[in-house]
Fold this sequence. Notes:
359 residues, 13 helices, 2 domains, 13 strands, Rossmann fold
Amino acid sequence: MKICLLADGESIHTIRWCKHFFGLGHEIHLITFKKVEMDDIHIHFIDTGKINVEGGNWKILLKFLHVKKVIKSINPDVLHSLYTTSYGLIGALSGFHPYIVTPLGSDILITPQKSIIYRALLRYTFKKADLITSMAPHMKDVMLKLGVPSVKITDIVLGINTEIFNKKNRRLSKDNFVICSTRNLEHVYNIPQFLSAIALVKSKIPTLKVKIIGDGSLRSELERLTRELKIDDVVSFLGKVPQNKVVELLNSSHISVTVSLSDGNSLSLIEAMACGTYPIASDIPANHEWIKEGVNGNFVKINGVQELADIIQKVYLNFDTIIDNAMLESDKIIADKGTWQINMLKMENIYKEISSHVK
């Protein structure tokens, strides 16, 4: 098959998707507003200038005729947008069929709240799509409230590659108690709450080490905050690191923390669970798919700094007695619904079916 993706070429979701389906023998084309390179993938870069991660990139709409021309030249068996606003809207404007849209999180959980115009654009995109995939029940609920017919929505959880993210090489330090975060340094991931909680527990965990894995527009501001909180001696900002290094860092961490304001389906959380960390996560719908409170992790209220500090200390004091059962439960949940290989087989079958019935 010839599959054309409309997506952010720098996104780990896009990279995984391209490499996976190429590995299955498909011809993969990627139309992206980011200048990237990927071995064996046909990249079609559309220069729209600087993209604002917070949204409001209206100028990309001026490129829809260019995108339409590129799609026509590729003539794929299926067009698939990863992200509903920007890429999804451009795909809808192209008029190509069969057309699939996959919301990833903030595009439908946050964007619709900004204005009636955004909601109208989302409805238009969904109307033009032949199929929409949903990563979680709370995302499907939002789409239904926007008027999307339920028959048009298919559940596809992205999941993780358990051949990569697992506990085979798990090694915990006897000298340090390690807490990690693998979220990017952007507003939605609410890193200041995490750092503020670390400031409260630093003196109570003598061997504390904190690893911040990821990068983003707030890095300088967050590094300054660690100095102001006097925790820069225990916090390390590691930036973007290769996937194998992420696995290594997770395998050496006791706790993983994600306190994002919103999520579609946090792969970072699932990856950390698969590597054996004890997860502490914000009390939002996305995370309830993966954590059973007090069994394989804990929830914390958004901006609940003292609450997060208390939970971290409690886990630290009881870690050896809770971690084995937590890992066992996490393994069961991931095996049930969080395995990338199984879920992408379902996606491949959808590609084949829709390309043979819709034109």
